[in-house]
Specification:
heterodimer, A: mainly alpha, two-stranded antiparallel ribbon, B: 9 helices, 10 strands
Chain lengths: 361, 256
């Protein structure tokens, strides 16, 4: 077990607790950068998909994991990010401007929607946000002159300083672009977590009453969480559009919203790692299933609902046996090895939580 | 001298129930003032009035010459009023250090964009917050728990962390809602020294609700006894304890 002997406040503030973990993440990034030379194009595409889901997951994680507000409407923000980025580019804006602009636009729209929505708590908020997912479909059809409705749109070629990037012809460049955006989003997320706003999010999640008494404006903080969350999700949506190549009103359906929420629960709520672990599960599950079917010799038989069924089963098993998700399990295994042989069986037993103040108002 | 906190003719009704009835009292700067009374007397309700969780039906509340009723609940902390809760309201899934740092929230000066890129100013501010929090940790002997999750801490420690979070905000007035409830004899003793030191070393005015008369008579300058939301008696701990009306409210008529 590594002991951190802290000698300055910066020990707690900096991104990595020690040199070792810095090296681990640096190595991870190095491997990720070198991936196009290691993997063939098919698997590189799959990894790109994982990263895009992870960005979208980070967005929802900030809202659900950090601030405690469930949303089943994030597919609408994926769609908004995707459509706005492509439309901006069709108007002649370069990708480097259109892309951040689409994130900002999605963030602003998210904040505006949040202002009435955050009056609701827990399951009611989740139900209310379902409406967004369903509405998004209709709005895209209704706005057909801009969005091309049911016939859909094709993602244009991305050009950055004269370098052309496209999902199929240059998968390696597209992968690097996505990787860079993933790293930037993760850094921004981490920075928010280690600053006062991130702590305010956690405060709102755990106790609104005492957060108020500490001077935190609940509605404003939640709206901010919504805004940042939607902005990141919008960026993820834009990348999803470029990854798919073509999209229409049915691309970003309610099922995507549900998948996104399940993904962060399976990965582990409230952690950056969780978004990535969950993305791996979501992105590789269809492939794993079809490989499994090939193995038992049923490759050509189509089983409707197999994917959602297996996904649902995984979710139920996680909630029953590992509510902390994959990341929580990973931490437990790590601590077991770090403490070896002193880990005790009941070490992670959930502690009883004490009575909370009765509802005010 | 004007009192630090002044409550005048405050009345609060929940439907037909009168929770606080025409209550007036004031707390002087630098004193420790306790509110006692049987269950349901309206002690915590008075705290919630001051924290602006409840809107009084009538009356006025002012702090340091400013009208508290003009402010929303989240703007009360800005004046330098910090509080604890009767049934601990900590941020369960955060460490002790993070909880105390939330107490510093009213001193946040950085904007969202600065925090996203972690600008140098954010780092400078962070160091200041941590320095302030570290002083509180020293004062309350919380070092062994600094990086522990609240969810795994025993009840007594949680009480202290909550006191620490209130202190971290650098208040002028500290509202303690039953600081000693559920604590062991030793922990209550510690709490007593801390309240003494908070007043003497930090110069913070303390208003508390407490049932433990030992603690009350040990640290308080003045005591207010409440029953059914109305003032029963006010004075030094000895005066209030000897008051026949107070004895009647606690023990019933004829007990004295």
């Amino acid at each position: 077990m590594r002991i951190h002997f802290k000698t300055s406040y910066d020990h707690d503030i900096r991104l990595f607790p020690d040199w070792w973990s810095f090296l681990v993440y640096a190595a991870l990034v190095a491997v990720a950068v070198a991936l196009p030379w290691i993997m063939d194009d098919f698997y590189l595409g799959e990894v790109t998909n994982v990263l895009i889901w992870a960005i979208a997951g980070l967005g929802l994680m900030l809202l659900t994991g950090q601030t405690g507000q469930a949303s089943l409407g994030h597919a609408a923000f994926l769609a908004l990010g995707c459509y706005s980025c492509v439309i901006f580019m069709e108007q002649g804006l370069p990708f480097l401007i259109a892309f951040p602009l689409s994130g900002i636009l999605t963030g602003i729209v998210g904040t505006l929607i949040a202002i009435p929505a955050i009056r609701m708590h827990g399951i009611y908020l989740a139900i209310a946000t379902i409406a967004l997912s369903i509405l998004a479909d209709d709005v895209i059809v209704l706005m057909a002159p801009i969005t091309d409705g049911v016939s859909g749109k094709f993602a244009p070629m991305i050009t950055i300083f004269g370098i052309e990037i496209e999902r199929w012809t240059t998968p390696d460049r597209f992968y690097w672009l996505v990787l860079a955006i993933t790293i930037l989003c993760t850094l921004a997320y981490r920075n928010i977590l280690r600053s006062p706003l991130g702590r305010a999010f956690a405060a709102v999640r755990d106790s609104e009453v005492s957060a108020t008494a500490m001077g935190i404006h609940i509605a404003r903080t939640k709206a901010m969480a919504f805004g940042i969350s939607c902005a990141i999700t919008g960026l993820g949506g834009a990348l999803m559009g470029f990854y798919a190549g073509a999209f229409n009103n049915e691309t970003f359906s309610l099922v995507i919203s549900i998948t996104l929420l399940m993904m962060i629960v399976i990965g582990g709520l409230g952690s950056i790692h969780g978004a990535f672990f969950g993305a791996v599960v979501v992105a590789f599950l269809p492939q794993a299933l079809s490989m499994g079917k090939d193995l038992i010799g049923g490759g050509s038989v189509a089983i409707p609902g197999l994917e959602t069924g297996v996904f649902g089963a995984i979710l139920i098993l996680f909630i029953l046996f590992e509510p902390m998700g994959i990341y929580g399990r990973w931490m437990k295994i790590r601590i077991w090895f770090e403490l070896f042989p002193f880990a005790r069986k009941d070490m992670f037993k959930r502690q009883k939580s004490y009575l909370k103040t009765e509802r005010l108002r | 001298m004007k009192p630090l906190l002044e409550i005048a003719n405050a009345t609060l009704k929940f439907g037909g129930v009168v929770a606080v009835n025409d209550l007036s009292f004031s707390v002087e700067e630098g004193e420790v003032y306790a509110i006692v009374g049987p269950n349901g007397a309206g002690k915590s309700t008075v705290f919630n009035l001051i924290s602006r969780f409840y809107q009084p039906y009538e009356g006025s509340i002012s702090f340091d010459g400013q009208n508290l009723l003009d402010r929303k609940a989240d703007a009360v902390a800005d004046l330098g009023i910090a509080r604890t809760f009767q049934n601990i309201e900590l941020f369960e899934h955060a460490t002790v250090l993070q909880n105390l740092l939330v107490g510093r929230h009213r001193h946040r000066r950085t904007t969202l964009v600065e925090e996203m890129v972690f600008a140098p100013r954010v780092r400078r501010e962070e160091r200041k917050h941590r320095e302030a929090v570290e002083e509180v940790i020293d004062f309350l002997d919380l070092q062994p728990y600094r990086d522990k999750m609240i969810a795994g801490l025993p009840y007594g420690v949680r009480k202290v962390v909550e006191l620490g979070r209130a202190l971290a905000s650098g208040p002028r007035l500290l509202l303690l809602d039953e600081p000693a409830s559920g604590l062991s004899v030793e922990e209550t003793q510690d709490m007593r020294w801390w309240i003494d030191d908070i007043r003497k070393q930090m110069g913070i005015t303390v208003l508390m609700v407490e049932h433990d008369m030992g603690l009350v008579s040990g640290v308080c300058d003045r005591v207010l006894a409440l029953a059914d939301g109305a003032k029963l008696a006010e004075g030094t701990p000895a005066q209030v304890q000897a008051d026949p009306a107070v004895i009647e409210a606690y023990l019933g008529a004829g007990a004295a």
